[in-house]
Specification:
Blueprint (H helix, E strand, L loop, with lengths): L1 H10 L8 H13 L5 H5 L6 H5 L3 H19 L10 H24 L3 H7 L4 H18 L3 H8 L1 H18 L5 H18 L2 H13 L4
Length: 213
């Protein structure tokens, strides 16, 4: 009964954020020395894989939408009627390796931001304000981030993204509302740069330096 109650916190459909219950549960386990019964989650009993994906409307849509995304990505793949030069393959791999690393930094911390703010003791309203600050800064800066990259250099903008995002992550270690808000704003700016500057740099290198097209 103890673990069923704990697992209901993890897998309940109506929760504040997907990462909050799991982080809270693992924190309690670290303090008490308990272990999570993985078999109870994915194996026999009420907590099966099917039960997880049918607990809410959003969970039901995960598998079909994933299949649809894979199918559309396959249909939208570029034509290879002409064999690209070997240098293009190397350029392709090098860009994706760097971009995936930078994007992972943004994706990995996403599910745990709400849990972090909640663990610091902030109210739901204050947490909402922090999130709005981040999304609002991304909205504003995203309007001219392309022109910014063209003006100051695409490579420099990509390097600046790394610096800004590092600063945003550093602020997460301080339980101070103002510092966290600065981190959210800088994180929003960095997100706008992530989804603009890297592609601008790639297209510029593709056409002007390597002359692939």
């Amino acid at each position: 009964e103890k673990w069923q109650a704990s697992l209901s916190i993890v897998f309940a459909g109506r929760r504040k954020a997907c990462g909050l219950p799991l982080l809270a549960l693992t924190s309690r386990m670290a303090a008490t020395g308990d272990q999570l019964p993985i078999v109870g989650v994915w194996g026999a009993g009420d907590w099966t894989l099917l039960a997880y994906f049918t607990q809410s409307f959003y969970h039901v849509l995960v598998a079909p939408l994933l299949a649809l995304t894979v199918a559309l990505a396959y249909l939208a793949r570029p034509s290879e009627s002409e064999q690209p030069p070997p240098a293009f393959r190397r350029f392709h791999r090098s860009f994706l390796a760097v971009w995936a690393l930078c994007a992972s930094a943004d994706w990995l911390q996403g599910p745990y931001v709400y849990a972090l703010y909640d663990a610091y003791g902030y109210s739901t309203r204050e947490i909402a304000e922090l999130f709005v600050g981040g999304y609002g800064s991304s909205l504003v800066f995203g309007c001219f981030v392309g022109a910014f990259a063209d003006r100051f250099g695409r490579k420099a903008s990509c390097i600046l993204y790394c610096v800004v995002y590092i600063l945003s992550c550093v602020t997460k270690h301080f339980n101070n509302y103002s510092v966290l808000m600065v981190g959210r704003i800088s994180g929003g700016v960095a997100t706008s740069m992530l989804y603009s500057c890297f592609e601008c740099w790639m297209v510029s290198e593709h056409q002007q330096r390597h002359c692939f097209s």
